[in-house]
Amino acid sequence: MWQQRSWRVWRFTKLFNVQSVRMSDNVKIGFLGAGRMATAIAGGMLKAKFDCNSVAAYDCSAAAAEAFEKFTGVKCAADPVVMMQNCSVILLAVKPQFLAEALLPLNGMLKDKLVISIAAGVNLSRLGALTGASRIVRVMPNTPALVGEGCGAYALTPSATNEDKLLVQDILESIGCFYELPEKQLDAVTALSGCGPAYVYELIQAMADGGVTLGLPRALAQKLAAATVKGAAAMVLNSNEHPIELRDQVCSPGGATICAVNVLAAEKFTHAVVAAELAAYERSVELGKN
């Protein structure tokens, strides 16, 4: 039963109704940090028909604040204390190394708030110590959230209410699909889906380089590589077949694909990817201890 509950996926839907019970209490969410990920989340919320009056933001960088305002239409506050006025939820979108400093002006103000954090590697215990809050949600998103195709996971403190959870689901489903997991698994999620886009970009670049080597124009090679990855991913997501089965369907006996796959095996492609994930996992754990 626990696995069934914890692996529920919440997907973005254009039919989301802002007048649902979840958002009927006029919740206002303050973004501490207005960088690219905060902009993606706020933008996703607004596209999902969240009211613009439900969003507030602050960033110490004028450039980041300007970009946030341009993308969302929400004007950033002049300081974090002003931003927090009338906010019952604060979303921490600050780089982990700057989080403690960014929270100083809000000392004592977050005790009764719902705190949502996307600061990589900062665990729930540390977030509680920094904010004084007990209702905390730690989220591990990834950069495809910028185009509404994010994925990842989140963990909640025991004090977080069911209403808190529903609100978090409303927010996250506007930028992709997310799974509730025990916090101890979030470092693994970081290594897989959090860092994963970089692995895929490396693959796309390598495929495009191969195409250019064989005489294709760079722009065309890159588009073909990216579209191939997108299509293959869709087949995995939309079928009940294992990736190995799908691979074998492409590998005709004595054909070009099996020759290519054999080279990948000889060059330890799978080993390299797994080793990269393990390195990312170890670094995420290390960051969480600092």
Outline the fold blueprint.
Layout: H1 2-6, E1 9-10, E2 29-32, H2 36-47, E3 55-58, H3 62-72, H4 80-83, E4 89-92, H5 99-103, E5 114-117, H6 124-131, E6 135-140, E7 150-156, H7 162-172, E8 176-180, H8 186-194, H9 196-213, H10 218-238, H11 243-250, H12 256-266, H13 269-289
Parallel strand pairs: 2-3, 2-4, 4-5, 5-6, 7-8
Antiparallel strand pairs: 1-8, 6-7
Helix pairs in contact: 2-3, 8-13, 9-10
In a few lines, what is going on in this structure?
The chain is built from 13 helices and 8 strands. It is α/β, with parallel strands linked by helices and 290 residues long. An 8-stranded mixed sheet has the order 1-8-7-6-5-4-2-3, with helices on both faces.
Overview of this structure, please?
This protein has two domains: 2-181, NAD(P)-binding Rossmann-like Domain (Rossmann fold), CATH 3.40.50; 196-289, Orthogonal Bundle (ProC C-terminal domain-like fold), CATH 1.10.3730. The protein is elongated. The longest helix has 21 residues, at 218-238. It has 13 helices and eight strands. It has 290 residues and is α/β, with parallel strands linked by helices. α6 (124-131) links the parallel β5 and β6 (135-140). The protein has helices at residues 2-6, 36-47, 62-72, 80-83, 99-103, 124-131, 162-172, 186-194, 196-213, 218-238, 243-250, 256-266, 269-289; strands at 9-10, 29-32, 55-58, 89-92, 114-117, 135-140, 150-156, 176-180. It has an eight-stranded mixed sheet with strand order 1-8-7-6-5-4-2-3, sandwiched between helices.
